Each structure stands twice: as C-alpha cells, then as structure tokens.
From TrEMBL:
Signal peptide: none
Residue ranges annotated for the Restriction endonuclease type IV Mrr domain, each copy included: 89-198
TM region(s), chain numbering: 12-36, 42-63
Protein's UniProt name: Restriction endonuclease
Alphabetized Pfam families for the sequence: Mrr_cat
Keyword terms, alphabetized: Endonuclease, Hydrolase, Membrane, Nuclease, Transmembrane, Transmembrane helix
Highest taxon listed in the record's lineage: Bacteria
Record SUPFAM superfamilies: Restriction endonuclease-like (SSF52980)
Entry's Gene Ontology molecular function annotations: endonuclease activity
Entry-linked InterPro entries: Restrct_endonuc-II-like, Restrct_endonuc_IV_Mrr, tRNA_endonuc-like_dom_sf, Type_IV_Methyl-Rstrct_Enzyme
Amino acid sequence: MRGRKSNAEQQAKLVVFFILIIGVLSVVDGLINWWIQLSVFVKGSLILSLSFVLYSTVTLINIRRQYRKQLEIEERKKRIIRAAEMKKIRQMRPREFEYFVADLFKALGFDAYVTKATGDGGKDIIVHKDEMTAIVECKRYKDKKISVNLIRQFHSVIIDQHSDKGYFVTTSTFTKEATRYAINKPIKLIDGEELVNYIQKIANQ
C-alpha cells in the first residue's frame, strides 16, 4: 500500500511540475509576443515620426522659396515704379519741380509756400510745422551729383535766415563729401531714391 501511495504522490508531483512548466512557457511566450508587438509599434512610430519631420522640412523649404520669390516679385515691381516715377520727375521744369516738392511737404503735414523765381537767396521753399521753420532748396538734376560746395552755401543760407532746419532735395545724389559735411548740422539731404520713398509713403496713406 505504501508503494502504491508513493507512486501516486510522484505522479501527482510530475503533473504539477508539467503544469508549472506549461504555465511558465505560456508566460514566456506571451512576453516574447508582447516584445515583438512593442518593437513593431516603436519601429512604426519611429518611421512615422521621421516621415513627418521630412515632410515638414520639405514643406517649410517650399514655403520659404515661395516667400522669397514673392519678395523678389514685389521688389521688382517697386523698382519699376520708382524708375517710372523718377523719370517723370526728372522731366519736370525746375519751377514745376519746386511746386511739386512744396506739395510733397504739404502732404507730410507742413505749411509750405514757394518763393519767387528769381533772387530767392538760396531758398526755393519755406516750410513751417508747429514752431519749426525750415527752408528747402530744390535741384532737379539728372546725373550730376550735388557737391559739398552747394551744401556749404545752403548751410550759410540756413544760418543767415535764422532757420531751424534746411532740406536739400534733389532728383540726383550727393557726393560723399557733401554727405559728410551735413552730419551734425541742421541739414536733411533728400536724394532721388528717398524722394520716391516719400512719394510712395504719401500714396499709401
């Protein structure tokens, strides 16, 4: 009887052992499957993330290119408009140009009136704004640059007239010496390019 009982116990232990082995193998298999699925998910997420980053980068590059292209188009239009306006201004008669500049100052909020055609004493226009009085000299040149001598003479007129400021307006440009001379003096130099800028500013108001 004892022998039979011993055999039964051994068989029972073997059954329990096999059940445990099967359970452990099932758990291990589940872990392996879970790890495989996780790896696939992570790999898929990584690929998706890289694809999104690549797409975003390409999109931003295209947007930047389109923006730069649009800026180039707008800048080209501005250059064409400026050239057309400057060509028209340079075709004005000197007296006509003085009245044009006076109108420009009026549009900028100044009181302005044009002096007499001859013997103006180096001032073509007198302008007022608040308590400030300034004189304006106009030179409608095509290619000739404004020299430092003209700016010196204009500075003397500003002092003689007891003006607060002076504006020297030209359709041309100023020499480097003239530009340097005007530094730290009550003189505002307005060349052809800046003149067009004022015109466009007024037009956009």
